[in-house]
Amino acid sequence: MQHYQALPTGGTQKLVVNATIQSRSDNELRITTSLHVDGGCEVAELVLLPQDISSLGLTATGDIGHGLLADGGTADFVEYERVLLTLTFDDGTVREATMVPTTIQPSPASSSSETTGPPVHGVNANIDTQRILGYGGLTRLSLKQDYKHHMLIKVVRRA
Fold first, then answer.
1. Maximum separation of any 2 CA atoms in the chain, in Å
2. Mean pLDDT lowest among 18-22, 35-39, 118-122
3. Strand partners, 112
4. Which residue intervals of the chain are DSSP H helices?
5. Which of 75, 87, 132, 133 is 20 to 30 A from 146, alpha carbon to alpha carbon?
6. Closest listed residue to residue 23, CA positions, set 70, 54, 67, 58
7. What is the DSSP letter of 25?
8. Residue 14 in contact with residue 122, Cβ under 8 Å?
9. What angle do CA 107, 110, 113 make, to 5 degrees?
């Protein structure tokens, strides 16, 4: 297996990577941001903030998914048109994949004892925790999260 060290983690123990996200319908619309890598609960490929969706000029597809969050809560995921995600690693390696971005809508089924703020996802509060690369996205990029060495690993398919 070939190892890829993730970009600087911003002082937190959770894995955070820098990414460029681009609209597929307009090459000029792109954002560069940090994503929290969630290898465990978020099945969504890419979870973004509403302002990210607006900056990229994306429209909702009308599809709504329902899922479990890393903090144990549940949420509805509103899907948008596909985007191109690019990760650039320390060694200059670039990984690209087309993904379905979503935004998280708090579920009415959430417990009444929860706060009304955005989901926390178990990361340090100084990181915008709603921008997430879920394990669906890791699969699409052919990457896995190595929790022990705190890096992303390229998945090697053996014949």
1. 50
2. 118-122
3. none
4. 50-56, 135-140
5. 75
6. 58
7. S
8. yes
9. 140
Q: Which two tokens stand for residue 119?
A: 């989901």
What is the value of pTM for the model shown? 0.75
Residue 22 to residue 146: CA distance in whole angstroms:
27
Q: How far is CA 144 from the centre of its chain?
A: 13
Backbone angles phi, psi at 156, to 5 degrees: -105, 125
Task: Give Cα 149 to chain centroid, integer Å.
Answer: 20
Q: Give pLDDT tens digits for 29-81.
A: 999 998 888 867 777 899 999 999 999 999 999 888 887 777 777 888 899 99
Residue 120 banded pLDDT, cuts 50, 70, 90:
very low
Please state, in angstroms and as integers, the Cα–Cα distance from residue 62 to each residue in 33, 36, 79, following that order. Answer: 25, 25, 7
